[in-house]
Specification:
InterPro entries: FTHF_cligase-like_sf, LUD_dom, NagB/RpiA_transferase-like. It comes from Nocardiopsis lambiniae. The protein is built from five helices and twelve strands. The protein is globular, with a radius of gyration of 18 Å. About 20% of the residues lie in helices and about 25% in strands. It has about 210 residues and is α/β, with parallel strands linked by helices. The protein has a single domain, classed as NagB/RpiA/CoA transferase-like (Rossmann fold, 3-Layer(aba) Sandwich), CATH 3.40.50.10420.
Amino acid sequence: MSAKEAILARVRAALADVPADEPLERVPDRAHLDSHGVGPTLDVLEDRLVDYKALVHRTPADRVGEEIAAALARRGARRVVVPPALPGEWLAGTGIETLTDSREEPLTVRELDASDGVITGCAVAIAETGTIVLDGGPDQGRRAITLVPDYHLCVVRADQVVDGVPQGVRLLDPARPLTWISGPSATSDIELNRVEGVHGPRTLEVLLVEAAT
């Protein structure tokens, strides 16, 4: 048994007493809900992300394209990497050159590193821990495209945000390539000097797309 198989076996054993037909709570508009008594879910997520030194902006759904254009302008980005199924309207009229990465035609590490950043969607976001999870979906792409560029702009919809880790895990497929992101890449040496950009982008910018009212 491989290490992966052993881990999955332990996960299955731990979930053995969970009813298979237990209804999965998925509420489109969670902004008004309370995240474990801490506060409204989207507010908690934003607070955690900011605490992790991510840049965060709230936007209505009909202004996502404008907010992306504004974020790229602030960054001075001209060439960005995009996954194959990033919604076209997000970049319409921005004048930004896009480099599409796909599993069939992947960009090289040199091309990824030479870009000004990457734009993706996400699979799930967890308010309580300020974590964004990517699963390699069509609007997220290969793991490499969010690890090599120095700037990651991630769009998170309100209906993708859950309160805690258990709810998030239940929405994910463990067989997919999961990347858990809690703020920009950072580490500390033995003297606790913070170093950013070691394992991924030094700058994480998040657009929280609020549910329509």
